[in-house]
Amino acid sequence: xxxxxxxxxxxxxxxxxxxxEPMTIAALAVHLGGVEPADLRxxxxxxxxxxxxxxxHLVERGGRWHFETAPDLAHLLRREKEQVRRLSRAATExxxxxxxxxxxxxxEIESIRGVQTSAxxxxxxxxxxxxxxxGRREVPGRPVIYATTPEFLDxxxxxxxxxxxxxxxxxxxxxxxxxDDALEEAMxxxxxxxxxxxxxx
Length: 201
Fold this sequence. Notes:
Layout: H1 5-18, E1 23-24, H2 25-31, H3 37-51, E2 56-61, E3 64-69, H4 74-77, H5 89-101, E4 104-105, H6 106-113, H7 119-127, E5 131-136, E6 144-148, H8 150-155, H9 167-172, H10 181-188, H11 191-200
Antiparallel strand pairs: 1-3, 2-3, 4-6, 5-6
């Protein structure tokens, strides 16, 4: 393939347009015959700029690139469909804990919330595609640990977990009420402190 920037941008554009799934830079490099990752990053950045004012945008979510409808036009493409079941408060709390502290075990989740977490709550989040099994903690009992997925980032419009809002942003947006202590604690929780407490018990 020619190394000309315009040629590479067109190739990247065509590849992403035809792809059924978002693609990482590594996947694009393989597909396009070993293009240098730095050149691909430049091409993607240039394309994202070109599409910024158009009806579709080129975006990066969790290290994967894809085209999506511009946010202000999304209402034009919505179809009537069955209302997705709203997450319970417990599921919302668990999702917040995992998002802000991943990877995290069920015991750590329960330590933050102060109540037991049912397997059903975790199953709901896994079925939604927002959390995944991320291995096991290398401690006695080797508990399963959980982390969020690229689909979680995509659904909430986040490029990475660094874009998660802080507690002050959530409160300013009116998304917290005075009884939302569990969420606030989740965002301040340090798993190392929990382990230390467990050791001293």
